């Protein structure tokens, strides 16, 4: 049976992707880790793993029924997780709407057989991978804000040595 590697996430505006790529290049040394491609920068809400087409369809139907207001997201925190080798950008205080949306999607995924991490949800955007050595983090004071007006289901495709994230469906949040 064919499966796809899927996840629910929030996309970043194109202009913000480019700003973050420039900031990352100015902030972190080339040896700090492997940069995530601008088009792949996102904030994961719920990782689903390998999913059958039937389960994917059921999860899309459930996602389409979510009614929740849009919210503003402030990116004003950064960190380094050495064990998985990730340098991330996140928020000091996650908005309630973000936490509720992730909780709903993670609960629906778990009920449909998609393993969910026992770790608490930590909203973040992965900037660098393979960052296993100590990384100097930037001083406080950086800040980006954007309106989250939709969320999407993405497929993770691996071909020719590269991973590409492809939006399969998107759903609006209430204005």
UniProtKB/TrEMBL annotation:
> What EC designation does it have?
3.1.4.58
Report motif location: HXTX 1: 42-45
Q: Where is this motif: HXTX 2?
A: 124-127
GO molecular-function terms, A-Z: 2',3'-cyclic-nucleotide 3'-phosphodiesterase activity; RNA 2',3'-cyclic 3'-phosphodiesterase activity
Q: Which residues form the Phosphoesterase HXTX domain?
A: 10-88, 94-158
Q: Which keywords are on file for this protein?
A: Hydrolase
Task: Look up keyword Hydrolase and say if it applies.
Answer: yes
State the reactions this protein catalyses.
a 3'-end 2',3'-cyclophospho-ribonucleotide-RNA + H2O = a 3'-end 2'-phospho-ribonucleotide-RNA + H(+)
Instruction: Name the active site residues.
Output: 42, 124
Give the protein's biological function.
Hydrolyzes RNA 2',3'-cyclic phosphodiester to an RNA 2'-phosphomonoester.
Alphabetized HAMAP family for the sequence: RNA_CPDase (MF_01940)
Similarity remark? Belongs to the 2H phosphoesterase superfamily. ThpR family.
- Record PANTHER family: RNA 2',3'-CYCLIC PHOSPHODIESTERASE (PTHR35561:SF1)
Q: What is this protein called?
A: RNA 2',3'-cyclic phosphodiesterase
The organism named in the record is Pantoea brenneri
Which gene specifies this protein's sequence?
A: thpR
């Amino acid at each position: 049976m064919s499966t796809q590697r899927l996840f629910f996430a929030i996309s970043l505006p194109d202009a913000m992707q480019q700003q973050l790529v420039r900031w990352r290049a100015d902030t972190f040394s080339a040896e700090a880790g492997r940069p995530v491609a601008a088009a792949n920068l996102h904030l994961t809400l719920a990782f689903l793993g390998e999913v059958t087409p039937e389960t994917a369809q059921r999860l899309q139907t459930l996602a389409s029924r979510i009614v929740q207001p849009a919210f503003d997201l402030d990116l004003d925190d950064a960190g380094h997780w050495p064990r998985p080798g990730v340098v991330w950008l996140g928020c000091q205080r996650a908005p309630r709407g973000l936490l509720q949306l992730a909780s709903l999607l993670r609960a629906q995924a778990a009920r449909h057989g998609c393993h969910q991490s026992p770790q608490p949800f930590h909203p973040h955007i992965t900037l660098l991978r393979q960052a296993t050595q100590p990384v100097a983090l930037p001083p406080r004071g950086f800040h980006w804000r954007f309106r989250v007006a939709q969320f999407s289901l993405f497929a993770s495709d691996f071909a020719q040595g590269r991973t590409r994230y492809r939006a399969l469906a998107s759903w609006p949040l209430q204005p």
